Amino acid sequence: MQQFLVSGGATLKGDVVISGAKNAALPILFATILAEQPSVLSNVPELKDIDTTFKLLRIFGAEVSRDGHQVTVDATAIHSQMAPYELVKTMRASILALGPLLARFGHAEVSLPGGCAIGARPVNLHIDGLRKMGAEITVEAGYIKAKASRLHGAHIFMELVSVTGTENLMMAAVLADGLTIIENAAREPEVVDLARYLIALGADIQGAGTDTIRITGKEKLQGACHTVLPDRIETGTFLVAAAVTGGDVTCLNASPAELEVVLEKLREAGAEVTTGTDWIRLNMAGRALKSVNVKTVPHPGFPTDMQAQFTVLNVVAEGVGMVTETIFENRFMHVPELQRMGADIQLEGNTALIKHSDKLTGAQVMATDLRASASLVIAGLVAEGETVVDRIYHIDRGYEQIEHKLKGLGANIQRINAPA
Ligand SMILES: CC(=O)N[C@H]1[C@@H](OP(=O)(O)OP(=O)(O)OC[C@H]2O[C@@H](n3ccc(=O)[nH]c3=O)[C@H](O)[C@@H]2O)O[C@H](CO)[C@@H](O)[C@@H]1O
Ligand SMILES: C=C(OP(=O)(O)O)C(=O)O
């Protein structure tokens, strides 16, 4: 098992190139299943979750090849519609195979993903929506078994805003017979990027990025070329790392438009943030960091995937900050680890009250999920002494070469093998 060894104290400075968004690349890769021709995708990040998706696509019978960040998928000859537990258990986004397989082939079997460290994460909204579109669905021996001769359009109101739920239903609807209307749809930029790719395949989709999406199904879809949008969460993570170390960092190949609330919070915290079309610069310019209150909500509000990083920001900042998590019921697993490093955080229900700590001390800490891991690395950057972050396979799911990118900014971080 690998670990990160982080020595605190460096001020991050310089440029970092942002990768393509994991949460856009994953649905888009699953959407290649819908087309009977190859697609060429650019800006696909090199991540564990992307490799898991390639494995699933190959099990289904698709041909997948990668040349750097360019990926070609040919799903013409898919012969299996079964996503096995062994892979699904390592990546919840595997549920995104369900909509496309069912829509194109009339049947699919996808293992139930199960819960994870951040919460129970049920998929009832995906199943209910597909049933409304005419699918017969049973859950047997841990597998969702779905069939339909051809899905039909439906009017679906989603009880809760669900990102992958919206994506699964949108992918199913593009090959369904007639009009599907998804109300209370997720408005995340990754949903919009998926819609852009589907439209390039020939799909008829209107309203992506609003809470009502209208999709008129087509008989067939063709292949397309598409460039995945920049990762707004990776961008935000580097900006927070720059802020807490009093640094001056420019994120290149970034997309400021998708990160407005986060940039506003960073300005409120005292950072000087400037943007261009595809770059964001954060410069602390010797200013003190001030605590900020954040409450996670669906887009365009403050993203839950930036909550752990802002928890650390508040530990370092002067004052008292309140962080409220409203999306996932158990997304404060980083708090006990930060407390072990000396952070003063009180957890009450879904709110963390965070007081400024004069200093954090390096310690051995355990990563529990992707963004919690990132927050522990950030804490290690400002802690006195050495921090060992354990179980970094979580980080490898979603951050491309994080240690190389941080080293390029002057951080002292190494990937090491855990002692046997
Ligand atoms: C691969 C991907 O894109 N992952 C993102 C996606 O996850 P994901 O799409 O899994 O998250 P959802 O938006 O579906 O979850 C939002 C809330 O709805 C609940 N829910 C969801 C579906 C359902 O059928 N029933 C139900 O109750 C969830 O448990 C959660 O409390 O959006 C989350 C919220 O922005 C992000 O943190 C994840 O990084
Ligand atoms: C929670 C996340 O991912 P996933 O939905 O794949 O678990 C994330 O990207 O922060």
From TrEMBL:
<feature type="binding site">
    <location>
        <position position="92"/>
    </location>
    <ligand>
        <name>UDP-N-acetyl-alpha-D-glucosamine</name>
    </ligand>
</feature>
<keyword id="KW-0963">Cytoplasm</keyword>
<feature type="active site" description="Proton donor">
    <location>
        <position position="116"/>
    </location>
</feature>
<comment type="similarity">
    <text>Belongs to the EPSP synthase family. MurA subfamily.</text>
</comment>
<keyword id="KW-0808">Transferase</keyword>
<dbReference type="InterPro" id="IPR001986">
    <property type="entry name" value="Enolpyruvate_Tfrase_dom"/>
</dbReference>
<comment type="pathway">
    <text>Cell wall biogenesis; peptidoglycan biosynthesis.</text>
</comment>
<dbReference type="InterPro" id="IPR050068">
    <property type="entry name" value="MurA_subfamily"/>
</dbReference>
<keyword id="KW-0961">Cell wall biogenesis/degradation</keyword>
<dbReference type="GO" id="GO:0008760">
    <property type="term" value="F:UDP-N-acetylglucosamine 1-carboxyvinyltransferase activity"/>
</dbReference>
<keyword id="KW-0670">Pyruvate</keyword>
<feature type="binding site">
    <location>
        <position position="327"/>
    </location>
    <ligand>
        <name>UDP-N-acetyl-alpha-D-glucosamine</name>
    </ligand>
</feature>
<feature type="modified residue" description="2-(S-cysteinyl)pyruvic acid O-phosphothioketal">
    <location>
        <position position="116"/>
    </location>
</feature>
<dbReference type="InterPro" id="IPR005750">
    <property type="entry name" value="UDP_GlcNAc_COvinyl_MurA"/>
</dbReference>
<keyword id="KW-0573">Peptidoglycan synthesis</keyword>
<feature type="domain" description="Enolpyruvate transferase">
    <location>
        <begin position="7"/>
        <end position="406"/>
    </location>
</feature>
<dbReference type="Pfam" id="PF00275">
    <property type="entry name" value="EPSP_synthase"/>
</dbReference>
<feature type="binding site">
    <location>
        <position position="305"/>
    </location>
    <ligand>
        <name>UDP-N-acetyl-alpha-D-glucosamine</name>
    </ligand>
</feature>
<keyword id="KW-0133">Cell shape</keyword>
<protein>
    <recommendedName>
        <fullName>UDP-N-acetylglucosamine 1-carboxyvinyltransferase</fullName>
        <ecNumber>2.5.1.7</ecNumber>
    </recommendedName>
</protein>
<comment type="function">
    <text>Cell wall formation. Adds enolpyruvyl to UDP-N-acetylglucosamine.</text>
</comment>
<keyword id="KW-0131">Cell cycle</keyword>
<dbReference type="InterPro" id="IPR036968">
    <property type="entry name" value="Enolpyruvate_Tfrase_sf"/>
</dbReference>
<dbReference type="InterPro" id="IPR013792">
    <property type="entry name" value="RNA3'P_cycl/enolpyr_Trfase_a/b"/>
</dbReference>
<feature type="binding site">
    <location>
        <begin position="22"/>
        <end position="23"/>
    </location>
    <ligand>
        <name>phosphoenolpyruvate</name>
    </ligand>
</feature>
<keyword id="KW-0132">Cell division</keyword>
